[in-house]
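Structure (tokenized):
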């Protein structure tokens, strides 16, 4: 059975730790400093609920000069990690606009997403209460919310696996819907003729 490939996009404002999360997940390394202008993609094969899948992960830059590329990412992405820093309330607010943009471009209210509060190791610097982020996730229709630490590798695998699981379920549902449509007989004029020709005939003996 061939492996299915899924496209994940990591979004959020600059400095929230998107690249650190991605590098920890893909390479098991902690990056102390990272060039914020770099956008990169990674491939990683993982197993989710017994399924072998390949993730194509796009780590986007959060700086303003790259915002023109976001529409392309949103069109091609199948699932989105929306990352903010628990030390920055503004980074959480920025995600609301990103989510609306995703929904608008995808023309879908049920796009696979995970909300990630990164830098959970910096509890003393917390600016976003857990309850505030959780409330937002509920307002978004129950989007899963995790607090993660790329530095400590806390909940790093979990956020990617949760997102991948959502994509798998949506992909399966879409394929089943297509198969159901494909098995329905077309109700065209030709079918009506065929049905007429196969009507039982009355024979008088």
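Design, position by position:
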């Amino acid at each position: 059975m061939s492996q299915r490939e899924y496209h994940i996009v990591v979004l959020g404002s600059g400095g929230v730790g998107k690249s650190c999360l991605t590098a920890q997940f893909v390479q098991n390394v902690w990056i102390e400093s990272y060039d914020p202008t770099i956008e990169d993609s990674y491939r990683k094969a993982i197993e989710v609920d017994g399924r072998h899948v390949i993730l194509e992960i796009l780590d986007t830059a959060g700086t303003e000069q790259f915002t023109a590329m976001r529409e392309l990412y949103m069109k091609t992405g199948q699932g989105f990690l929306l990352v903010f820093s628990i030390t920055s309330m503004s980074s959480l607010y920025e995600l609301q606009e990103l989510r609306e943009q995703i929904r608008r471009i995808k023309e879908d209210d049920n796009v696979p997403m995970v909300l990630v509060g990164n830098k959970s190791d910096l509890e003393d610097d917390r600016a976003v209460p857990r309850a505030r982020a959780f409330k937002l996730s509920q307002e978004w229709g129950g989007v899963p919310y995790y607090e993660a630490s790329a530095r400590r590798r806390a909940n790093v695998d979990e956020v990617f696996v949760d997102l991948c699981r959502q994509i798998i379920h949506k992909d399966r549902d879409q394929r089943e819907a297509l198969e159901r449509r494909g098995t329905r007989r077309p109700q065209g004029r030709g079918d009506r003729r065929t049905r007429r020709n196969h009507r039982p005939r009355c024979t008088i003996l």
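Reviewer-requested clarification: The mean pLDDT is 86. The chain has six helices and six strands.
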